Amino acid sequence: MTSIPTPVNKPGNPNFGSGPCAKRPGWHLEALKDACLGRSHRSSAGKAKLAEAIARSKKLLELPDDYLLGIVPASDTGAIEMAMWSLLGQRGVDVLAWENFGLEWVQDVVEQLRLPDVRSFTAPYGGLPDLGQVDWARDVVFCWNGTTSGVRVPNCDWIADDRQGLSICDATSAVLAMRLPWHKLDVVTYSWQKVLGGEAQHGMIALSPRAVARLESYTPAWPIPKLFRLTKKGKLISGIFVGETINTPSMLCVEDLLDALTWAESVGGQAGLVKAAEANAQLVADWVARTPWVDFLASDPATRSTTSVCLSITAPWFTALASDAQQEVIKQLAKKLEGAGVAFDIAGYRDAPAGLRIWCGATVQAADVAALLPWLDWAYASVEAA
């Protein structure tokens, strides 16, 4: 490939990283001026902010009235760990994984909780395990969207309506960018830092009535750390779901969430957010279709993520390199893009196959995605020539 001219137009916002993700369009520090700072989160003012964050999040998610939603510590990781430590052990468990974070949950279930009856179904980056192997008499843990592989489940048909076990879903890079079938999901976890562009360290956990019933009828055999406790004396700690958080939250981050919710409501709510992510991902897909040196990491088009879009370089000169050499090329490519001020943090996840990862969630504007794509050709031409 010969060198190509340096593109003229640059993205207005070069933040294409997959977490923390780009702030909402037009964000500025002044948006946080009403934060409840220097006050206890348990004061009437603090609790009101937290309760508002939960109520507006439930409405934006279109969560069923009988589902609960709470703010919990340690981002999505804390939320999914809380679910596994508090709910698993009554039944056998099936754990699905096709990328880094799913594999972490497999490891925790097997090596930390040490459950006696665990089946893991895994697939390499780019693919999905056979979802038909799942036994819904058992509890099932899975990610809706593989943030580090760009692979999502194609639909909800494989989740049984008459399941006996619980479906426990890490949906952090899917929530508000992909429609979730709430009636199929008993536990859903996510963080503020993905589709809403919020700040890190705070997670959300949604519980179905079936999940609440499990919590109040089953006590795990192991001690549960305070940060993971959802029950007290056999009853749900209901305060978690009205803003009485387990530990001290950042009220500055809460104010940022409220600002993000206001923006999300202004662009059409969940429907608008989903539409924006799909449009962004389609711009990338159209570019991939006309670009000979690149393809999606996800092998099946039906499983391609519309948020964490993962790409592979398919040119023979690149695929012939050893994996370490491939990673070095990607570092050079990403460095060139960052140096030009057009794209930050788009190298693929460190444990994933060498490639690029472009966040296409709704806080990223379509014009910025369109402006980025010629720069990818430009950066690729430079590393190919080298």
Count of alpha/pi helices = 9
Structural class: alpha/beta
Largest sheet: 7 strands, mixed
Provide the residue-averaged pLDDT. 97
Overall shape: it is globular
Terminal residue distance? 11 Å
Q: Uncertain segments of ≥5 residues (pLDDT<50)?
A: none
- What CATH first level of the largest domain would be assigned? Alpha Beta
Q: Into which percent range does the helicity of residues fall? A: 25-40%
How large is the radius of gyration?
Answer: 21 Å
Number of domains: 2
How many individual β-strands? 14
* Proportion of strand residues: 5-15%
- The strands making up the biggest β-sheet line up spatially as 1-9-8-7-4-2-3
CATH superfamily assignment of the largest domain? Type I PLP-dependent aspartate aminotransferase-like (Major domain)
SSE string, helix = H, strand = E?
HEHEHEEEEEEEHEEHHEEHHEH
From the structure above, extract its key features:
386 residues, alpha/beta, Aspartate Aminotransferase, domain 2, Aspartate Aminotransferase, domain 1, 2 domains, seven-stranded mixed β-sheet, three-stranded antiparallel β-sheet, globular
